[in-house]
Write a structure and sequence with these properties.
By secondary structure, the chain is mostly beta strands. It has strands spanning about 1-15, 25-45, 45-50, 55-60, 65-80, 85-90, 95-100, 100-105, 110-115, 115-120, 125-130. Strands 1, 2, 3, 4, 5, 6, 7, 8, 9, 10 and 11 form an eleven-stranded antiparallel beta sheet that branches. The model has no long low-confidence stretch (mean pLDDT about 95).
């Protein structure tokens, strides 16, 4: 089991684009994020993460697709096990993506993702399934 704890955190810059299996692919991406408090636990294909107030923005153009997203959360607890993922929180994610076989759109924390990843979000609380 791997665990990670952070107090105040901030980072920004370009990142290496990867497909949904973690393999490096051609593309460019940039991300900036900052927050207060984050704890995560990962075990095989399961994870749990709790976050305090945080904000971030990311953009990517790669062979997997295109995405632009901004995020601001007051707090959230997220969990995933196998194909099921859920998040309980209060946030205002806004953006769009066509990536990895899915189409996603969110405005002020409310939106949907359809395709390989299918989910519904309401003000930062989300439930979803990942197929194949």
């Amino acid at each position: 089991m791997a665990s990670k704890t952070q107090g105040l955190y901030a980072k920004s810059g370009p990142y290496t684009c990867k497909d949904r299996n973690g393999k490096q692919i051609a593309g460019v991406g940039a991300k900036a994020e900052a927050g207060v408090g984050r704890v995560s636990l990962v075990e095989d294909d399961a994870m749990v993460e709790a976050r305090g107030p945080n904000a971030g923005a990311s953009t990517e153009i790669s062979e997997a697709g295109v995405s632009v997203m901004t995020r601001a959360e007051l707090a959230a607890v997220e969990a995933a096990a196998g194909p099921v993922n859920a998040k309980i929180g209060l946030g205002i994610d806004t953006g769009a993506a066509v990536k990895d076989g899915s189409v996603e759109a969110k405005v002020l924390g409310c939106g949907v993702s359809l395709g390989r990843k299918t989910s519904v979000s309401v003000f930062g609380t989300e439930i979803g399934l990942s197929f194949w």
